[in-house]
Amino acid sequence: MLKVDKKSEPSFLTDFKKRNKPSAWDDYNQADIKPKLKEFMLENEQDGYCPYCEVYIKDDKSHIEHIRPKDIFPRVFDNHDNLMACCMSPNTCGGSKANKYDENFINPVINNPKEYLEYDLSSGDIVPIHSEGEYYEMAIYTIDLLNLNYRKLSDARRSLSIELNYLYEESDFDYYKDELKKFPSLIDFIKEDIFG
Ligand SMILES: [Zn+2]
């Protein structure tokens, strides 16, 4: 899971709000506002990745995810800080989370996932760093809600960690990360493990 550093709300979104006074998410179905917003967020805030599963979605289909679900938190339904572009997987991420959310959720706009989550390289699973307490509870809740250890994801991460055994130089890891465009925090995790 990746930290998302939100930029200021883009002016096209501010203008759209002023002009159209949207009161529900459906009001955004007009014009090309949703595609424009996704492109802005992927390009400027997310490096092209789904922040939950770390699959590269810039050239693929994606949807706009409400971190706090719009049905439960109607007041933030179009708050820029509550929106991210997210993958279309029906089994993980937004597809798994749906309308569920509570304060145990690791919100990647507010919290840094690196402080909560790490990897079990033998299985490819994402696991809590801490063994008890609030950080542990939040990690467990979030991994489960987003289904981050969905078999296909864990298998792909495990395979990647084996491939990375063949890299020797620190710079190889950065190069590999740019080329592969998948699971950047796993690559960083292994790099830090080796080079500190
Ligand atoms: Zn995803």
- Domains, number: 1
What coarse outline follows from CA principal-axis ratios?
globular
Multimerization state: single chain
The count of helical stretches stands at: 7
Point out poorly predicted stretches: none
The residue fraction in helices comes out at: 25-40%
Q: Quick one: how many beta strands?
A: 4
> What order do the helices and strands follow?
HHEEHEEHHHH
Tell me what portion of residues adopts beta-strand conformation. Answer: 5-15%
Look at the helices and sheets and give the structural class.
mainly alpha
Report what the structure shows:
By secondary structure, the protein is mostly helical. The protein has one domain. It has helices at 11-20, 33-44, 93-97, 133-146, 151-163, 170-180, 184-195; strands at 63-66, 83-86, 117-120, 125-128. It is globular and about 55 Å long. It starts with 10 loop residues before the first helix and ends with a helix. The chain binds zinc ion. The site of zinc ion (ZN) has 9 residues, from loops.
Keywords:
mainly alpha, two-stranded antiparallel sheet, 7 helices, binds zinc ion
Short account of what is shown:
The chain contains seven helices and four strands. It has 196 residues and is mainly alpha-helical.
Any chance you could write out the topology, listing elements then pairs?
Blueprint: H1 11-20, H2 33-44, E1 63-66, E2 83-86, H3 93-97, E3 117-120, E4 125-128, H4 133-146, H5 151-163, H6 170-180, H7 184-195
Antiparallel strand pairs: 1-2, 3-4
Helix pairs in contact: 6-7
Bound molecules: zinc ion.
